[in-house]
Design goal:
By secondary structure, the chain is mainly beta. Helices cover 12% and strands 51% of the residues. The protein has helices at residues 11-18, 30-36; strands spanning 2-6, 23-27, 44-47, 60-79, 84-109, 117-122. It has a five-stranded mixed β-barrel. A hairpin with a 4-residue loop joins strand 4 (60-79) and strand 5.
Amino acid sequence: MEYVALTGISERVISELRQNRLLTIEIRNPYNFMAALHLNVGDMLLLTHTSPEDLTGGSMGIVAKLVRHQISTHRLTQSNELYYEERETTSLRLQLDPKCIARVRKVLNNTMGEATKVEAEEIPLYNAR
């Protein structure tokens, strides 16, 4: 099956998803931000701790269903008598419901600025390692 992939996800997040916990994560990484930007509630996606550069067939991950999708922007200003600085960051908050463990068969797209897409197969619990 084809999935949008979020890469470089921390081991702690992957571990919590493996325990079948509903989890909300915040995405700031450009690869993952572009991949998740156009997802809709109910879409399935693959999360893996593998970095985008190292993503290949055989990489393991967790398939999760997108429950909630929220874009938020934060503004921070600093100033004194000599300067005024304003910074803005945009992030995505995704609430995920884990479904199963999967193995990447083939990377379909891994281009910066586009959604990372993979073809992956679900791994039965007795085969997962």
